[in-house]
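#struct-help
A.M.: can someone run this one for me? Single chain, 327 residues.
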Amino acid sequence: MKKVAAIALVVLAVVWLLNTSLLATPPTGAPKILAHRGIHQVYSPDGVEKDTCTADRIEPPRHSYIENTIASMRAAFDSGADVVELDVHLTPDRQFAVFHDWTLDCRTNGTGVTEQTPMTELKTLDIGYGYTPDGGKTFPFRGQGAGQMPTLTEVFNALPHGRFLINFKSERREEGATLAVLLRFHPEWRKQVFGVYGGSAPTQETLRLIPGLKGYDRQSTVACLGRYAAYGWTGIVPDACSDTLIIVPSNYAPFLWGWPHRFAARMRAVGSEIILLGPYGGGDFTSGIDRAEDLAMVPEDFAGYVWTNRAETIGPLLGKRLAASSD
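D.P.: on it. C-alpha cells below:
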C-alpha cells in the first residue's frame, strides 16, 4: 500500500508540475472586449428558450441603442470593444441582412421568416417596434429603428477599421460559400472578419474556402474541450483545438488543465484564440461578463477576448483595472 501511495503522489506531483500556472509565464498582451450584438437592450436570461421573444422582456433602457445596428456597433467600438459580434441571414436577393431573429414578428412591425424576405422589404421595417420593458405598456423604441437594419456590406463600409465575429443563424451551406465569394471580390474586407460561428454547415464551408480564417460551431467546441479534458494534463493539445476560436465558459474555466496561464500558452502555441464567456447554464453560449463583479472571473494577465453583453460597462471598467495594475 505504501508503494502504491508513493506512486500516486509522484503522479499527482507530475500532473501538478505540468499544469500549474504558478510556474508558467503569462502570455503577453491585454484582455480584449468582444461585444455581443454591439451595444444593445439587455434582458433577463431566466426562462429564455430558443424561440422566446426577448424584445418584450427588456430591462428599463439605459441607452438608446438597438442591437445589430451600425450605431450600436460604433458605440461598442467607442466603449473599447476590439471585436463586435453580429448576426446574419442570406436573403433571396443575395444580401446578408444583419439581424438576430429567425423571424420578424418579435422585434419589428413585419412578419415572416427573415431569410425568406428580400432585403428591399427588410429595409422598410422598424426594427425597434417590438421592444417593451413593461409588458406592452410602453414601446420606447418605436420609430427609432425604421430602416435601420443594415446589410453586412454596409457594416464593412461604415466601420472600415472594425473587426467582426459573424454568426450564421441558419444551417445553409450556401451562406458560407456566399461570404467567401464576397470576401474574394472585396479582399479589403477580409481583415475585418475576426471569425465565424453558429450553424455548422455555413461555418465549416467558410473555413474550408477561406484559408487562415478562424471559427467554431458547437461540434468543434465540444471536440476541443472534451478531448482536452481527457488528456490535456499531459500538455498535448488536441488537433481540434488548433487554429481556431476556443470559447470557455467562466464557470468551467478553473477545471481546464493549466488554467489560466499554461492553458493560454498552449492554445496560443497552436494558433488559437480564447474567448472567455460568462457562466454556462445549458443554454446558448451567449452568457457574458456583464457586471463589475463578473470581472473577478477574468484572470489577471488574461490576454484573450472577454465576451460581454454590456460593452459600455465592461469596456471602461476593464480599462481602469488595466491602468491600476500598470501603476
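A.M.: thanks! Strands lie at 32-36, 81-90, 96-98, 164-168, 193-198, 215-216, 245-249, 273-277, 305-308.
D.P.: also worth noting: The chain has a mean pLDDT of 93.
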